[in-house]
Amino acid sequence: MKQTEATVGLSRSLGLWSALALVIGTVIGSGIFFKQASVLQLTGSTNLALLAWLLGGLITLADGLTLSEIGAQIPHTGGLYQYMNHIYGKFWGFMSGWMQVIVYAPAIVGSIAGYLGLLMVNFFGIGAVWKGPIALLAIVLIATLNMLQNRYGATFAIVTTICKLLPILAIVIFGLFFGHESGVGETLAGVHQSMGNFGVAVLATIFAYDGWILITNLGGEIKQPERLLPIAIILGISIIIVLYLGVTYGIFRSMGVGRIDQLGENATAYFATNAFGKWGGRLVNIGIMISIIGALNGKIMSFPRIYYAMAHEHQLPFSHQLGRLNRTTQTPVVATLTLLVLTTIMIFTVDTDRLSKLCIFVMYSFYIAAFVGVFILRRRNPGGSQLFRTPGYPFVPIFAILGTGFVVVSELFSDFTGALVSMGVIALGVPLYAYLKRYYRHEQDQDVL
Asked: What is the distance, to the nearest Å, from the Cα of residue 262 to the centroid of all Cα atoms in its chain?
């Protein structure tokens, strides 16, 4: 590995458009097409539903503003893993990375691929037995693309992001200018409105905004990351907020709340059919599938960088192999193949959707620790990053911590068993960390001898 490291490095070739496309493309999947009815049902009125989408977006924006200051100071490959490593030490860096590489990354990739497979078998009217093979084919093709030079994965991200924006913009424009059955301002009868229901609605929107943080895993491949990474994160989240509010408002402008409630997840497809004719629903389904493919590409591109970064710190088994880059493509091929193998195993053996949700409690706990890290870094280094400093400090980081804390507490109360399981997975990493520390120390001693 030493020889490889000396001659091959990650290609710092991703510009602002690539980074921006990865932020938007990784976040926007299927949620915005399906969640309007569920958020409306929880809040009881279109005005409160729009407020829930706005508040979820503002919490996410506060998260992005806060983490951007850290990213500007620690612009390295590995994102959250590197932040925890630099702020809290190697043990906590390992813990944040361990959960991601062993469970969260393959589970969430498998979950998204499985949903893509489900949509495709329904779209083409083929047997459900093809769901798994289609999911596997999708991740194999996208992983292969991302084993080429990173510009190919970035270009694919730009193309899929543009494609997924077309149906979204069509919904927004039609709703704003041609919506005739306005449900804006209506209240859904029979729904008991409470702050508890509103909180659950906000929680649902926060999950729909999730995924933007993965761009930080590519910090070592972005040009001038100290400057471009904050711009991509903040601009990307801001655009997503506008799009989410636009789609929701457009649908509310075009349909009554009773119809939206009745149709549930099918409300957007029904809207598209009414707006654009009999092919409208199918076009929306195609847009959703492209959205999922784009989100899958962003995750498969970014997650292997965590394996790679941890391997360079000797914090994974087979670190010599996982830390290698292909000499021609300058990409972590072994790390990408490892993610592919783990994902394949999970797709055919476990409920990846459930497994990815089990990780939420621990993952968001690490997010909180990272946000607290802004205060630690400012105290540790008063000069800090002169390229980006969180505006509204300390109120914006506090808002980010409270918003993310709301997710953690909600998960603890709603799925206590799942929270315990995720903490158990984390605990399994403690003996592995101790073993790897001894193993690689012994190996270094042998090299000296």
From this structure: 30
Per-residue pLDDT tens for 252-286? 888 888 888 888 777 877 787 777 777 777 877 78
What's the helix, strand, coil split of the chain in %, to 5?
A: 80, 0, 20
d(CA 393, CA 254): 40
Distance, CA of 310 to CA of 210 (rounded, Å): 23
Tokens standing for 112?
A: 């998204």
Summarised one tens digit per residue, pLDDT across range 122-178 is: 888 888 899 989 999 999 999 999 999 988 999 999 999 998 888 888 888 888 877
Residue 14: φ, ψ to 5°: -85, 125
The amino acid at residue 294 is G
Which position has the token pair 């921006």? 20
Q: Which residues contact 158 (CB under 8 A, 6 or more apart)?
A: 17, 18, 21
Task: State how far the alpha carbon of 31 is from the alpha carbons of 5, 181, 226, in Å.
Answer: 40, 24, 31
| Token pair recorded at residue 80 | 């959250």
Q: What is the model's pTM?
A: 0.90
Residue with tokens 């491949």, as numbered in its chain: 221
Residue range 89-126, pLDDT digits in tens:
999 999 999 989 999 999 999 999 998 998 899 888 88
Q: DSSP letter at 218?
A: B
Distance CA 330, CA 165 (A): 31
b vs e for 68-88, b when ≥16 Cβ sit within 10 Å of the residue's Cβ?
Answer: bbbbbbbbbbbbbbbbbbbbb
Residue 437's pLDDT is what?
87
- Asked if residues 325 and 10 have their Cβ atoms less than 8 Å apart, the reply is yes
- In the block, residue with structure tokens 């329904």: 122
User: What are 298-329's pLDDT values in tens digits?
Assistant: 999 999 999 999 999 999 998 889 999 988 99
Integer Cα distance of 330 and 332 in angstroms? 7
HEC-encoded secondary structure of 120-144: HHHHHCCCHHHHHHHHHHHHHHHHH
| pLDDT band per the 50, 70, 90 thresholds, residue 2 | very low
DSSP 242-292: HHHHHHHHHHHHHS-HHHHHHHGGGHHHHHHHHHH-TTHHHHHHHHHHHHH
All domains of the chain in start order, with CATH:
2-448 (1.20.1740.10)
